[in-house]
């Protein structure tokens, strides 16, 4: 499995563009970040080349909501631009969410005026079209459920709804991002859930609960969690999207040993 570190949260002690060098020094070959639209992609590419790094994932959406049918055109147009950015970066995976999400990773608009049935139907149809864009580009969209404690108003906040959406879309280019920090808060029992989701999972985000720090700082049984990944044959990316408990360099030592 590939280990990727999220440089939106790790190595924040230095400027964003200096984090690539720190990631390489810490022994990682892959990094991930959120919004591409706020970044100088030319400068990112230069840092990737200089330090022999690859981008594991970026955010595919931002200003528009997946669950609003009347925002579909805007959502898909932004997704097209995201896919072009991903192709420029050589990035194979784009993370998508149910609601509009800002460059800071926070829900910026919630479709409270729509029923859950309307949101579900809109998400399925938009992802069907988005999956076709991903197929043409040779990349994958991964749909992420978030917790409502830190992301109030988020429609997609549980694995079962995410599973139903993925199954209705029925595309190998649209899979599920399982974030254990978010889902431990919302539903617990993450080992059994991983086994039930199986090959629908296309990406994993890791942070311990409840502080969102590195593994071993909280309550999650990572030995049991790792067994569940073995059981489903998961061999994709483990993305460490976490806030270091002390500093980034110490956190990276823990991540390397994970």
Automatic annotation (TrEMBL):
SUPFAM superfamilies in alphabetical order: Xylose isomerase-like
GO molecular-function term, one example from the UniProt record: isomerase activity
Active site: 144 (proton donor/acceptor), 241 (proton donor/acceptor)
Domain of life, source organism: Bacteria
Record domain Xylose isomerase-like TIM barrel: where: 20-246
InterPro entries reported for this sequence: HyI-like (IPR026040), Sugar_Epim/Isomerase (IPR050417), Xyl_isomerase-like_sf (IPR036237), Xyl_isomerase-like_TIM-brl (IPR013022)
Keyword set, alphabetical order: Endonuclease, Hydrolase, Isomerase, Nuclease
Similarity comment: Belongs to the hyi family.
Protein name: AP endonuclease
